[in-house]
Amino acid sequence: GRISVAKMLARSVSRLLARPSTALARRALSSGAPNITLRYFDSRGRAQGIRYALKDAEVEFKDDRVSLQHIISGNWFNLKADPSISGPFGVLPVLHWDDFTIGQTEAISGYLYHKLGHAEGLSLEDSAMSGALVSCAHQDVIVMCLQVLNVVGTAPDLKEEQIGQAVQSCTVRMNGILPRLEKLVGGKDYFLKDAPVMGDFCIYDALDQCKVILGDNVLDAYPGLKAFMERMANRPNIAKYIASGERPLFLTGAPQEAQILQKIQSVPRL
User: Fold this and answer.
1) What do you get for the CA distance between the two ends of the chain, in Å?
2) Which residues are within 8 A (CB) of 45 and not within 5 positions of it... i.e. 6 or more apart?
3) Which of 74, 229, 252, 264 has minimal Cβ neighbours within 10 Å of its Cβ?
């Protein structure tokens, strides 16, 4: 009797972990459709992982994008002073979920981890690991990659050799992170279970941005991460979202980003 009960429990847990994130979200939101607005600049930046998670879960939300023209004109300072726009900390991204407003990427990701049902079947330690992946994605990978854009964009007279040095510096730092991520994913479909959670969506976005800066071959030495990226990109709702053209075109939204990227991608790697 005990053995059969144990087997039944094991099968139930297995089915739970295999449940797609869309089903988890529907169960988590079974009380009704919330009124959701995600506000960020018209770029991927620090909000794209959040967009992926919401799109993957088929959750309806308003993707409210602040035009870069507000920054260029100086009007962003007026918007920034309005907490109904810039949230409690005066920064973007901001998430409005019915009457609740939260700012900061990591905090929003932690909130959605629970709201979208990602916590089902996972432990407190798993929750901490998802949060760590979100932090790694934004504080390490994306920050490093966008620094290259900022360096090249703010110093238009940089010589090719200097641009190459900036790219190489980012590459060296990424070479310290990628082996650790490869070990963590360990050949699994996703980092924590059989469906992606917030940490997966943010790492997917971060590595995608990394590929834009350092080239598609940056993951060639990491088969686990390459397989993970392909699996994420082929998730039906994410693939549909990317194919629709709804995803922001640029990483930062800077008006010269296309030219900056061309400079970065044209320099020979050291």
Assistant:
1) 65
2) 142, 146, 251, 252, 253
3) 74
Instruction: Take residue 13 and report the two structure tokens written for it.
Output: 């847990």
DSSP E strand stretches across 42-155: 62-66, 94-97, 100-103
Contact 68, 253 (CB under 8 A): yes
Dihedral sign of CA atoms 105, 109, 110, 111 in order: positive
- Taking Cα atoms as reference points, which of 246, 248, 169 lies closest to residue 208? 248
Question: Residues 199, 133: contact at Cβ < 8 Å?
Answer: yes
The residue behind tokens 């994306």 is 142
Under 8 Å between Cβ of 137 and 206: yes
Neighbours of 190 (CB within 10 A): 19
Q: What global pTM score does this model have?
A: 0.86
pLDDT of residue 29: 59
Closest CA to 137 of 100, 181, 102, 74: 181
> 63 - beta bridge partners?
38
